[in-house]
């Protein structure tokens, strides 16, 4: 088996609904040519495993903006507001580094409330 692949070899094997691990950090080191090919092929319903969801106009963030990602497994999403928007609307499922479990909108709301209460307690010593 030849270990060197062309982009055509790679993209012909990426199908709707696949789990794809994508390298990079904040879009740096992300294989943009593969992202370009995935966008061009319009592959959808992807589960992406990545360090972060990049920026809306860079790296895998472009797949999220195009709504080609169904679920993301990541450590954080703060850099890409579109990820948070789709997550909060229920369009995008995700697993985070906090135990790798599914977060529903209710889970997110509860966690945000607990965080706010904790921060108020710490900041205002209440």
UniProtKB/TrEMBL annotation:
Keywords: Transferase. InterPro entries: CoA_trans_fam_I (IPR004165), CoA_transf_BS (IPR004163), NagB/RpiA_transferase-like (IPR037171). SUPFAM superfamilies: NagB/RpiA/CoA transferase-like (SSF100950). Gene3D superfamilies: Glutaconate Coenzyme A-transferase. Belongs to the 3-oxoacid CoA-transferase subunit A family. This is Acetate CoA-transferase. The lineage of its organism: Bacteria, Bacillati, Bacillota, Clostridia, Eubacteriales.
């Amino acid at each position: 088996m030849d270990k060197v692949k062309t982009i055509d070899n790679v993209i012909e094997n990426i199908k709707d609904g696949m789990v794809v691990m994508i390298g990079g950090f904040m879009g740096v080191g992300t294989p943009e040519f593969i992202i370009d090919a995935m966008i061009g092929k319009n592959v959808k319903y992807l589960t992406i495993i990545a360090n972060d969801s990049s920026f809306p106009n860079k790296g895998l963030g472009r797949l999220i903006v195009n709504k080609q990602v169904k679920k993301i497994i990541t450590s954080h999403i703060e850099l890409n507001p579109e990820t948070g928007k789709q997550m909060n609307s229920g369009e995008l499922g995700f697993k985070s580094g906090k135990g790798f479990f599914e977060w529903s909108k209710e889970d997110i709301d509860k966690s945000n409330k607990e965080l706010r209460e904790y921060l108020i307690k710490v900041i205002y010593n209440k």
